[in-house]
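Open question from group meeting: does this chain pack into something compact, or does most of it stay loose? Before anyone orders reagents, we agreed to write out a predicted structure and look at it together. Recording both the input and the output here so the notebook holds the full record.
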Amino acid sequence: WGCMLRSGQMMMAEAHMRLKLGRDWRLGDTVPGEMLEILKLFHDVPEAPLSIHKLATAGVDVGKPIGQWFGPNTLCAVLSRVCPSGGKCPLPVLACEDSAIYASDIEHLSPDSPFCLLVPLRHGLDEIHPSMVPQLAVSLTWPESLGFVGGREQYAFWFFGVHGEGMEARVHYLDPHSVQSHTVPLDHLTYLPRASTTTSLASIDPSMALGFYCSNRAAAEELLRKISGLNFSGGYPLIATGGTRPDFSKLTGAEIACEDSDDDSVVLL
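Structure tokens returned:
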């Protein structure tokens, strides 16, 4: 049940590496002190800001008992609770709702402060919609991309890179189901795998959570322009964008209450 939590930790660890070490940093013979500070955020102890203990406990606050599998929606909600703006986590998380990003979502953020943007999506029922695959492949090439968490139903991975284009694209991912030794003090080698696995992007589950690292508000605005400019070939956009988030409470007509099943399998017809 913890694979979605571990995959979320991987994506957040990449974000903190971007913050502290830059996107071009690569593992060498020595490990910088900044890396060890990052690893402490994820150490398997209850007091660590991004430990599995902290994430599982935050899940209880959003209705997920410890031991119950998280879906992408719940993961985003939990990470935004654990890493609020002004909290102990060095990098705040903004989780977008309704598979959409609005300019109004980021207007209130500090102009010069970095943050993570998480977008839970579902494009399809049992399989990802073909029109989404090329868009997703393009988004993974952007420097802001932190990849995405998803994979198969109740079997999560962290996808972080792509090669190839269109329906032929393949994605690189790390598998959290590999057991590692618990070490005290921290052993960075148990946190930094040397190899990844690949799979066809068209074969993944349609439910996922995309992550983006924004170095400041201007970078987030540029990201919105990139998302808006994706070519979706007459189908549907990967992520909807807009100026101001609608106030759905003012809508008239039938009221529809959708309880989150946490595999995000809600389809309105």
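Observations to bring back to the group:
The chain has seven helices and nine strands.
Residues 3-20 form the longest helix (18 residues).
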